Amino acid sequence: MPILNWQFKAIVDSRVINSGQVCNCAERVYVQKGIYDQFVNRLGEAMQAVQFGNPAERNDIAMGPLINASALERVEQKWRAQ
């Protein structure tokens, strides 16, 4: 099964739209064992390319700030669970 670039764009876009605060963002990706390592590496590269920051300051920002402190806490909890 080939790994296609559009897959990474779709996953990244789903996670960063509206700073990831949308209820229909992807939360899980199922990957075949035989391509898991390659897939994770390429997805990591795609996420590292995302520009984070304040979109009011730059027009190339893909993921801006969270809406409030409770949103930050939810993100931190998910991150710690990993």
Key terms:
single chain, 82 residues, mainly alpha, Aldehyde Dehydrogenase, Chain A, domain 2, globular, Aldehyde dehydrogenase A
Q: How would you describe this protein?
A:
The protein is mainly α and 82 residues long. The protein has a single domain, classed as Aldehyde Dehydrogenase, Chain A, domain 2 (3-Layer(aba) Sandwich), CATH 3.40.309.10. Helix content is 46%, strand content 0%. It is built from 3 helices and no strands. Helix 1 packs across helix 2. The protein is globular. The model has no long low-confidence stretch (mean pLDDT 85).
Q: Give the overall silhouette.
A: globular
CATH architecture: 3-Layer(aba) Sandwich
Question: What do we call the CATH topology?
Answer: Aldehyde Dehydrogenase, Chain A, domain 2
**Top-tier CATH class:** Alpha Beta
Number of strands: 0
The main sheet comes to:
none
Strand content: under 5%
Structural class: mainly alpha
Number of helices: 3
N-to-C series of helices and strands: HHH
What's a concise summary of this model?
The chain is mainly α and 82 residues long. 46% of the residues lie in helices and 0% in strands. The protein has a single domain, classed as Aldehyde Dehydrogenase, Chain A, domain 2 (3-Layer(aba) Sandwich), CATH 3.40.309.
Please outline the helices and strands.
Layout: H1 5-16, H2 36-48, H3 69-81
Helix pairs in contact: 1-2
